[in-house]
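hiii, so i know i said id send this last week but things got crazy w the move. better late than never?? heres the sequnce for the chain we talked about at the cafe, plus the structure i predicted for it. fair warning i was half asleep when i ran it
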Amino acid sequence: MPGFLLRTCLLLAVEVGAALLLSEAGAPWIPVLLAVFVIGSAVPHGTQGEFTARFLVALVAVGAARLAATVWEQYGGPAEPLAARAGLAALLLLQTVTLLRLSRGASRR
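okay and structure toks below
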């Protein structure tokens, strides 16, 4: 279980950093999202995660970072983005479940 917590915290820290960078006007979004994708695909290292699982975790990390930036930009505005918040929560839940499943599979070996 410590591996799962480390993987989850590392990915959440990267996503929060990316969201803060992307929330600024004129931020270079391609390098930031590419870095999130690369780190997201490396997080399941040491698990039985093959290409599909790594790609899923990385893609969800990019989506979560982008949605978090959208929510951060519009936080406290006249129209709070409820759909963006719901999407972000769904992506983070999917990411956590995927990482938990991969981590539990690694501990069974």
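btw The chain has a mean pLDDT of 79. thought thatd interest u
miss u guys!!
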